[in-house]
Every structure is written in structure tokens, then in C-alpha cells.
Amino acid sequence: MDADAIVVGAGLAGLTATAELARAGRRVLLLDQEPESNLGGQAFWSFGGLFLVGTAEQRRMGIRDSRELAWQDWLGSAFFDREVDDPAGEDYWAYRWAQAYVEFASGEKRSWLHGMGVRWFPLVGWAERGGYLADGHGNSVPRFHVTWGTGPAVVAPFERRVREAADSGLVGLRFRHRVDGLAVTGGTVDGVRGAILEPSRAARGTRSSRTVTGEFELHASAVIVTSGGIGGNLDLVRENWPDRLGPAPDRMICGVPEHVDGRMLAIAERAGGRLVNRDRMWHYTEGIQNWDPIWDRHGIRILPGPSSLWFDARGRRFPAPHFPGFDTLGTLGAIRATGFDYSWFVLTQKIIEKEFALSGSEQNPDLTGKDIKLTLSRVRPGATAAVEAFKRHGPDFVVARTLPELVAGMNKLTPEPLLELADLERQIVARDREIDNPFTKDLQVMAIRNARRSRGERLARTAAPHKILDPKAGPLIAVRLNILTRKTLGGLQTDLSGRVIGAAAPGGVVSAGEGPRPVPGLFAAGEVAGFGGGGMHGYRSLEGSFLGGCLFSGRQAGRAVARETGALPVSRTGAAAIRRWRRRRPSSPPPCPRPGRRSAPPR
Ligand SMILES: Cc1cc2nc3c(=O)[nH]c(=O)nc-3n(C[C@H](O)[C@H](O)[C@H](O)COP(=O)(O)OP(=O)(O)OC[C@H]3O[C@@H](n4cnc5c(N)ncnc54)[C@H](O)[C@@H]3O)c2cc1C
Predict the structure, then answer these.
(1) Which atom of ligand 1 sits closest to the CA of residue 549?
(2) Residue pair 32/21 in contact by the 8 Å Cβ criterion
(3) For residues 41, 43, 45 and 50, what is the CA-based torsion angle, rounded to 10 degrees?
(4) With a 6 A CB cut-off, is 43 part of the ligand 1 pocket?
(5) What digits encode the pLDDT tens for the residues 534-578?
(6) Pocket of ligand 1 contains residue 541 by CB under 6 Å
(7) Would you say the CB of residue 46 lies under 6 angstroms from ligand 1?
(8) Ligand 1 atom closest to Cα of 12?
(9) Distance between CA atoms of 160 and 477, rounded to whole angstroms?
(10) CA–CA distance, 428 with 434 (Å, rounded to integer)
């Protein structure tokens, strides 16, 4: 054996699992196909938004939240409908992971991260507002907690722990190791094999070479797959695209780096793992082409406030609840039903200043750099520098003083001039008449007024209602919105310990009431496992639950493997390394207790 455990993928889920294993004194090999510059994977690029429930940050803003409310919202969004009560069902473990995750997000999650030094921006964001009934999709209250320092600050404590364990000899970091297959002996996964890629100086997020310079085969008592989703592989996205969202788009932009290639899913399947809910995905409808791209077809997501008017490619305003930030997948379905793969926002300078945020650590240097002065400028008039740069250089933006000029500019951005000035004007004027009273029949105007009853929204996220055609609010702005790939909601089915469920029971026989068994030795966590259970989000997400899903499932898998390998004596090098680590870090938590092998997953 080369180690107690091998972890495939050094993103957030892999780092979390590795940190847990090292804490328990296990020897780990952490492999990644990319160079060291990529450590942390997608999470580094992320906005660092976390789904947290009933927090001090919410209370300070006057938001009353609870586990019950969060669970009601989760169920309304997930809409689990695939044999939740049948151990062989696709949603069996997904549902149980969802329960455990909402419990985690309402309880231990904040204090666990806080104890590692993670902090949050005081204004809690309101993502996925729903727009249906109380038990339907969406967050009833703001829950999107933006990490102070964004994605890199979520990665940092786990990276630090892994590097310390590497210095102590407990963890071996193997970059440029691409896993191409899992080693299976007598039905048990006991290693990985693959290609050593040539050294690369590729900057984080950029393409690295795939030239092979050698091969490797490594063995361990357990393998944890944490290789991410499929969002960077447009062929796989199209192949798995569900009919309910209309035909797969011809044109998409990419919200994730190319390493999010989905290859490990098929590799784990070949080793006997069960892939479920592969048609469930989370792609955004407010994607804009990055004028300064890092990876191929690099797109950025606008995190919109509720006021922009949303039109289809022919200039028809989308009906309720397809408003900005309400129901991502509902709007995606509505866009695809038009037969086009783009749509339009029409807004004012006043709206862009207050309501446009861009997702991604590099688009938010104030928050990422923990610059208090720069961050405070968000509540003052003016858009952020990144938004202004997109307005000036972004190929999807049109800025004009008058509506005729705006529509002419919009028509220039598409292969055919599909927009009629008179048609757009009629709809905008009609909407503007609804602003005259404090009450209205226009559901979007109602939603704006509702949002402004929330303190944080009023202060920093929702512009005061005004007429779009009021020159004082101008200039007018139009943004062509592209479909942007991002997250994989389905994946390898796992039990609550992160053990990958087998595609079939041994011998293909499943007794009544019993589901397929786990594949011995094989674990998965993070996006590749649908963030737990092969799809803990069901059909839709409440947002901010992906990073948290990596942390929770990575921790579960790491702890479970530590327990499973607990019956093995800690290797001499392992024991010595723990002693060294303790000497160096007297304040670090003690390794996990080792209760030995367990036959049933913890409840
Ligand atoms: C711009 C952006 C903004 C986001 N914002 C948020 C947010 O605010 N809140 C939120 O909750 N989520 C957000 N997300 C989503 C979240 O960051 C990801 O879902 C999460 O980080 C995925 O982590 P992971 O560890 O599962 O996979 P990844 O980060 O994809 O890491 C997987 C690693 O595995 C490696 N790998 C893959 N295959 C192999 C192989 N065969 N051999 C060896 N190595 C392999 C890859 O190179 C990669 O390093 C955002 C994502 C992006 C890109």
C-alpha cells in the first residue's frame, strides 16, 4: 500500500476530505491532473456565497430564519420525486443527504467555519427568490452569506491544513497525475492508475498541456473521488441535457475552467459505481462573455437584483415569475421554449449601479482582497469597477440615451434584427405606468416593493422603483444574456458516509427493501457526488449550497475513511508524523477518535 487513502481531485471537496484524514493520522495521497497553481479548483474562483440558516448575520438584518423554514424551501425547490423511500431509488440517498445538509447549515456549519477563521460580509444576499407559493421553489428569506475574502477565503483553512500535513509527511501532493482508471481487486477498489502529465507553468484556471510523460499506479485501502462536475465539457452537458428544459442550446458559454471535464464519472462507473440523476444540472441564464477571459469561452454570471426587465430574443417580456434572481431553471426552460439560446435585460444606469454584482472572486477585488474601504463604496452611488468595465468593453452590452438607439444597438448584436422598437416601447411604457401608485398589478413591480422591505435589499441590492424611460435614471442599458454552464446536480450515488453505491448488488440480486450495496473501497464527495447522495439538491438549488456541499460531503467521506481504515495500525510514518504535527501546532485539534470498522453508515 502506498497510503491509507488516495484522494482524486484537489478542489474544495478533496482538500476537506484530505484535511480530515490527516487529522485522524491517516496517510493520504492527494492527486490532481492540474499543476499546483490550480489548488482549490473551482472554489478559488467562486464568490464564496454560503447557504447558512438562522445566523447572527441574518438576525442583525432583522431576518427570522429557521431550520423548518429552510427545509420547507429546500423541499419546494428540490422536488424529490424519484423513489425517495425505496433504497434502490435515485432520490433515496439524495433526500437523506438533503436532510443532513440542511441540519448542518442550520447548526454546526457556521461555528465550524468560524472556528477556522472564516467570516462573512454583514449584508446577507437573497438568491433564488422563487415567485410561486410558500411551499414552492425559492428562499423565503435572504440566506446567501458572502465570505469575507470570497472563494479563496473558503479554501484557505483547508489548504493550510493540507499543506501542514504535507510538510509533516502525512500527505503526499501529486500534481500532474491524471487518473484514468480505478484498480479493483476481488471487487474492492484499492487504487488508481493513470498518466503523468508533463510539468506545466499554466496559470490558475488556464488550459494546461495534456502531453503524457509517464504512467503511475498507486494503491491504498480506500479511494475518494472528488473530481468535480461536467460543466466544462459542453458535449457531456448536451448529452445529459433534460427534455424538460427544451432542446440543448447550440451556443453556451462556460462558467467553469476546462478541468471540470467530467471524465471521472465514467471511470468510477466502470469500476462499478452508480451514477444517478444525470439529467439534473444547474446552468445560469444571465451569462455574459468575459471581455478579459481566463479560460476558453469564459463567461461570468450576473447576480442580478430584481428590477431589470427581462425580454426574450423577439422582445417579449417574460411572464411571472421569470424575473431576475427568482427561478434560474424555470427561466432557463422559458428561454429554451422560445427556440433561442439568449435573452435580454433592459435596465437603467440607476439599476446597474445598485443591482449588478458579478459572480467570481476575480470580479470582486474589494471583497476578495478584504478591502473595507473599497467594499463600503458598494453602498455609495456608482457601479463597481468590474461592472463598469463590462459596460465599456463587454461584447454583450449596449448603452444608449434613447430607446430607439438602444434597440438599434441590440439588433446589431444578433444575426437577425428581431426586435421591434414599437413593441418594446409599448411594454416598457405599460410597466412604467405601474410605478405611479404604491400598489400595482405588475408582479415584478410588486416584487421590487417587497424586496425593499428587507433592510439589506433596500440598502445595497434593490434600486428604488422608477420609470425605465425616465431620463434622470439613464442612460439605458441592454445586456444580451447567454446560457452559462456551471454545476452538476446529479452524480455518483453515495450513502451518508460518502461510500459510492454500486450499480448492481453482487450477483445482480437485490432483496426486497434493500438497495444496491456500496462498492468496497470507493468513496466520493463534492460535485462529482451531486454534493452528496448523487443529488442532494434534487431539481433546483437555493444557491450557496455548493461550496457547503463540498465541505460537508468532503468531511463526511474523510471521516468515514478514517474510521474504515481505523482497524489498520497507523503506519510508523503516520504515527511519527502526527507527533511532529502536534509538536508544531499545539493548538490544532486532536486527530479523530478511531472506533474501528463499522458495518452501517451513521444516521
Ligand atoms: C465562478 C464560480 C463561482 C461560484 N460561486 C459559488 C458560490 O458563491 N457559492 C457556492 O456554493 N458555489 C459556487 N460555485 C460552485 C463551487 O465553487 C463548486 O461547485 C465547487 O467548488 C466544486 O468543488 P469540487 O471540489 O467538487 O470540484 P472542483 O473544484 O472541480 O475540483 C476537482 C478537481 O479534480 C481534478 N480532477 C478531475 N478529474 C481528474 C482526474 N481524472 N485525475 C486527477 N484529477 C482530476 C480537477 O483538476 C480539479 O482540480 C462557483 C463556481 C464558480 C466556477
Answers:
(1) 11
(2) no
(3) 170
(4) yes
(5) 999 999 999 999 999 999 999 999 999 999 998 555 444 445 544
(6) no
(7) yes
(8) 25
(9) 44
(10) 10
How close is the Cα of 464 to the center of ligand 1, in Å?
Answer: 36
* pTM of the predicted protein model: 0.93
Cα(147) to centroid of ligand 1, in Å?
Answer: 17
User: Measuring CA to CA, which residue among 548, 549, 550, 544 is closest to residue 126?
Assistant: 544
At 476, list the grid cell: 439605458
The C-alpha cell at 280 is: 439534473
Q: In whole angstroms, give the CA distance from residue 445 to residue 264.
A: 46
Cell of 356: 449588478
Does ligand 1 lie within 6 Å of residue 22's CB atom? no
Q: In angstroms, what CA-CA distances link 223 with 25, 129, 523?
A: 16, 39, 6
- pLDDT tens digits along 342-360: 999 999 999 999 999 999 9
| Residue 174: all three cell numbers together | 501529486
Give me the residue label for grid cell 404604491: 438
- Residue 347, C-alpha cell as written in the block: 435596465
| C-beta separation of 285 from 483 below 8 A | yes
Q: Count H helices and E strands in the chain, helices first.
A: 20, 20
Place of cell 438549488: 541
Q: How far is the CA of 344 from the centre of ligand 1 (A)?
A: 29
Residue among 34, 42, 225 to mutate when testing ligand 1 (max atoms within 8 A of CB): 42
Give the residue with greater pLDDT, 506 vs 379. 379
- Whether the CA torsion 461, 463, 468, 472 is positive or negative: it is negative
The per-residue pLDDT of the chain, averaged, comes to 93
CA 250 to mean position of chain CA atoms: 23
Torsion of CA 360, 231, 303, 318, to 10 degrees: 160
247 neighbors 231 (Cβ within 8 angstroms): no
Q: Is 173 in the pocket of ligand 1 (CB under 6 A)?
A: no
Q: What is the pLDDT of residues 34-90, one digit of tens each?
A: 999 999 999 999 999 999 999 999 999 999 999 999 999 999 999 999 999 999 999
* Backbone torsions φ then ψ of 336, nearest 5 degrees: -65, -30
CA of 63 from ligand 1 middle (Å) equals: 31
Buried b (16+ CB within 10 A) or exposed e, 1-29: eebbbbbbbbbbbbbbbbbbbbbbbbbbb
Other beta carbons within 10 angstroms of residue 579's beta carbon come to 12
Name residue 118's beta-bridge partners: none
Q: Return the HEC string of 272-331.
A: CECEECCCCEEEEEEEEECCCCCCCCEEEEEECCCCCEEECCCCCECCCCCCCCCCHHHH
Q: Decide whether any atom of ligand 1 lies within 6 Å of the 12 Cβ.
A: yes
Secondary structure letter of residue 37 according to DSSP: G
- Amino acid identity of residue 503, one-letter, is A
